[in-house]
Amino acid sequence: xxxxxxxxxxxxxxxxxxxxxxxxxxxxxxxxxxxxxxxxxxxxxxxxxxxxxxxxxxxxxxxxxxxxxxxxxxxxxxxxxxxxxxxxxxxxxxxxxxxxxxxxxxxxxxxxxxxxxxxxxxx
Length: 123
Prior knowledge:
Blueprint: H1 3-11, H2 16-22, H3 27-53, H4 57-74, H5 80-92, H6 98-122
């Protein structure tokens, strides 16, 4: 992997070492994990949007929890705080502020996607 891309990913707040560890430092596995993470997270963010719109706190809490866990496991730490906030709001039974936290999660996801695209292009 290109050292410059590793540095830019670290600047984005990602734990690339964690991702490489999960992939046994295999570039093909890193690419596969990145693709899977991006696909699943995009789907989960859509599910969260639908849950917020339909006022389904249970669904929002479950999906946010799952997404936060996967993000932490893969080293995508900037996603964890907004997802934990969404989960917290869902568990309280109120979705006040959920739209704003969802927007923050979407913004972090866009930054992560850009950083990960750099990494996978360098593999």
